[in-house]
Design brief:
By secondary structure, the protein is α+β, with helices and mostly antiparallel strands. Strands 1, 2, 3, 4, 5 and 6 form a 6-stranded mixed beta sheet that branches. The two termini are 30 Å apart. It has one domain: Phosphatase 2c, domain 1 (4-Layer Sandwich), CATH 3.60.40. Helices cover 28% and strands 22% of the residues. The protein is built from 4 helices and 8 strands; from the N terminus they run E-E-E-H-H-H-E-E-E-E-E-H.
């Protein structure tokens, strides 16, 4: 199945996106010469496994006028389809609120070690990367706690992956959990090439299995 929905509002509400699997959301932006370049789409296709537990969102005008957020969530377990939609509906606003909160902190709060790590990772001169990184980690943790505190939902054996791509100007910030992927399509001399931007985190990978167990998770495979 697939759906494309457009909403004219710059305010994010938890129930804005409804119950569709894939949604397109557009904040209020001014018309300009580059308006025709704001092209995007979302699509979700039901496979042969039964219930479609995927959720996705594309948000144009996220954070800043030329910003965007694209995210996919693949639920698993009995209530995975519910969890993926809850996270899809809530995480964009949660992430932005975390980012705005961090932006109010003095730049001196960024430690020397963080600055050195940024340089060693060769992530370029973007001054916003550390703030977005902290916002992503914080938002993911808060989202996890909120899911666990839902009295109306048993998520003890359910959850969702998350792959989130945030575009702010010329910068891309990518955060992911699980094995959903973010893939960049780029033109080369030999045609269009797909470049995977994320690393799959699966329990079959020894380091990931160890991390899950340290977090008091269960590895059944």
């Amino acid at each position: 199945m697939g759906i494309c929905a457009s909403i004219s509002s710059s305010v994010i509400h938890d129930d804005t996106y409804g119950h569709e699997n894939a949604v397109y959301y557009r904040g209020t932006v001014s018309l300009n010469a580059n308006e025709s370049q704001r092209i995007g789409s979302t699509y979700s296709h039901t496979g042969s496994k039964g219930l479609n537990q995927d959720s996705a969102i594309l948000f144009q005008g996220y954070g800043i006028e030329d910003g965007a957020l694209g995210a996919v969530f693949d639920g698993h377990g009995k209530n995975g389809h519910i969890v993926s939609k809850i996270v899809r509906n809530r995480l964009p606003s949660l992430l932005l609120s975390q980012r705005n909160g961090i932006a109010k902190i003095s730049p001196s709060a960024v430690s020397t070690k963080q600055s050195e790590r940024l340089e060693s990772d060769q992530l370029g001169p973007s001054k916003n990367f550390l703030k977005w990184k902290e916002a992503c980690v914080s938002a993911f943790k808060v989202m996890d706690k909120e899911i666990k505190l839902l009295d109306s939902l048993d998520c003890s054996c359910s959850g969702t992956t998350a792959s989130v791509v945030v575009k702010q100007g010329e910068d891309l910030v990518i955060a992911n959990l699980g094995d959903s992927r973010a893939v960049l399509g780029t033109r080369t001399e030999n045609g269009i090439r797909a470049v995977q931007l994320t690393t799959d985190f699966k329990p079959g990978v020894p380091s990931e299995a160890e991390r899950i167990r340290k977090c008091k998770g269960r590895v059944l495979a």
